[in-house]
TrEMBL record:
<protein>
    <submittedName>
        <fullName>VWA domain-containing protein</fullName>
    </submittedName>
</protein>
<feature type="domain" description="VWFA">
    <location>
        <begin position="31"/>
        <end position="229"/>
    </location>
</feature>
<dbReference type="InterPro" id="IPR002035">
    <property type="entry name" value="VWF_A"/>
</dbReference>
<dbReference type="Pfam" id="PF13519">
    <property type="entry name" value="VWA_2"/>
</dbReference>
<dbReference type="InterPro" id="IPR036465">
    <property type="entry name" value="vWFA_dom_sf"/>
</dbReference>
Amino acid sequence: MSQHFEPRHQATSPYPAYVEPVNGLRPRAFPFYIVCDVSQSMWAPRPDGKPAPFDYLAPCVREMLFELEADDPEVSEAAHVSIIAFHDRAELVLPLTRPCNANEVPALPKGGQTNYAHVFETLRPLIDADCARLERDHRRKTPVVFFVTDGNPYVGQAPQPLDVWLPPRDRLVDRSAPYPAHVVAMGFGEVMEQTLCQVATEFRGHKLAYVAVDGHEAAKLVADIVESICISITASVTGPDFAIYVPGSMRQVRCESL
């Protein structure tokens, strides 16, 4: 993956900065969680015979970890990356680890429906445990969740109700919690812009919600999204603070107008 994107959005954290110990010279730790929708719409064969988004997602995620490990020793040491796949349920594919220690990345699973509630319910205790462990030996930064989806929440025979999946999402980003997370929502396919806005966290009155620009094939979009996540992680670790770089095939959603 070549780093060719121009930055569309670069921001400091919307949460209070983590205060480093005055006498501490512990190594830094930046926890990143890549949440991948692997429901049926991601992998089902296309009528036109073109590759499905999933066909690009799995190899691109593995390549991203290789690039994070190979490109910059600072990133390989300070970034900690976890991969979570979700469909009918959420599955921890790769526990939080440095790219330099990710010797083998398990294959992404395939599933049926799009259960938002279960993935947010899974993330909260997972991030709490990871951050508590990191803080014992590191100067921890705010956790960042990259949420990649091509569809709206749907379970059983109907859309998953907002009052089922939004409360666990709100607990994930609650600033009164010990480890509130950023959530960057990146969507394409059938996902509604309003859904992305409800998933994403806010900075300076705008949500970190991004949607595909019309005219781009879904499979190519997945490769662009994974590359942009790789660039964002690198920029966040090597720069002054959390940064988002978005490919030209996507745009920031104007959530305030929805």
